[in-house]
C-alpha cells in the first residue's frame, strides 16, 4: 500500500544522497565475521547470541499510523520468537529507525541499518514510496528487505521486467486489490454504473483505479464518471457534485485515510448515500475520527485480514496482541508487521545462515507458510500468493464481510 506524500526536505535529501554515494562506492557490505554464518557475499551479521534485524518505519510524520502499527506487530513477533528460544538459539535484536514518513529519510535509515548496525535483513517501510527508496541499498549491500504493506508492483519488479533481487513483501499488490474491489462491487453489491474518485498524485491510488476500471468494465459495469484530487486537499465538494450528477450506484475511492475521511464525510453531507469502497489505505483509526462513524456506514475496503475472522491462528494472534496492548484489537498493519518478522525468521532458520544471499534465496523459496494474514507461497516476482479480505464499516467499526481467494 501506500507511498509517501510529504515533500522531501532539501537538507535530508542532501544527507541521504551523500550517504548513498558512499554506499555505492563500496563501503556498505556487511561484516563477514558473523557467527550466524555470514560471508563476504553480503548482508550483516549475528553477534554472539543475537541476530540483528532492522526496522525502517514511519514512526513519525504524515503516515506514522501505519509504521507505528507495523512496529507493534513486529515487537510481539520478536518477543514470541525470543521467548521460544529464538532462531537456532539466537535471540532477535530488532533495531528500529524512524524514517519520518519521508523518502530521503527512508534511504538514510536503510544506509544506517546496513552499514552501521550491520543487520542481516530489514523490515522495510510501510509505504510504497519509502520502500522503493531503499531497494537500491538492499540490492547493493545484499541485505533482504521485506515490506509488510508496500503494495506497489515496482518494489519487487522494475518497469523493464527485471526483479529486484533482495526485495520482498508480505502483502498483496495494488492491482489485486483493484480486482477484488471490482468483483465485490459487481457480484456482491450488483453495481452497474460506477464512479472513480482517486488521488491523482499517488501511484498507489492510480494503480488501484486502473485495475478497478479494467475489471469492472470486463464484468459488464460502466464507469460513468472519473474525478481526481491531490494529497492535502481539504474541500472535495466540487468533484463530488460532478460525481453526484451522474447518479452512480457505487463510488470507488482509492487513497489514504487523511483525505478519504474528509471525502466520505462531505459525500454523506451532500446526500450521496451509495456504497463507497477503498483499499488498505483507508485502514487507520483516524479515518473514523475524520469521517464520523455514521458517514462510514455502507462503506467497504479490501484488506489483508480481519480480527473477527474465526480462524484459530488469527484468534490466537488477536488474544496475544490484546494482552500486550491494553486490550486493543489488532488491525491489518499490526498483523502484517507480525507476519513479516515471522517470514524473515523462518527464512533465516531455513537458510541456516545470516548470509544475505542465503536468506534471500530462502525468502524466495517460501512455500505454504502459515501466517496470520494467510497461508502463502512466494511467486517468481517475490509477491505472496494469498487471500484478500473485504471489510465493512458498521457504526465506526470494521466488520468481517468475506474472503477472496487469489
Short synopsis of the structure:
With 406 residues, the protein is α/β, with parallel strands linked by helices. It contains twelve helices and 16 strands.
The residue ranges in which pLDDT falls below 50 over 5 or more consecutive positions are 2-41
User: What overall geometry do the principal axes of the alpha carbons give?
Assistant: globular
Largest sheet: 7 strands, mixed
User: What Rg do the Cα atoms give?
Assistant: 21 Å
Question: What's the rounded overall pLDDT mean?
Answer: 89
As laid out across the biggest beta sheet, the strand order is: 8-7-9-10-11-15-16
> In angstroms, what separates the terminal alpha carbons?
18 Å
Helix proportion:
40-55%
Q: Strand pairing plus helix content: what structural class?
A: alpha/beta
Helix tally?
A: 12
The topology string of helices and strands comes to: HEEHEHEHEEHEHEHEHEHEHHHEEEEE
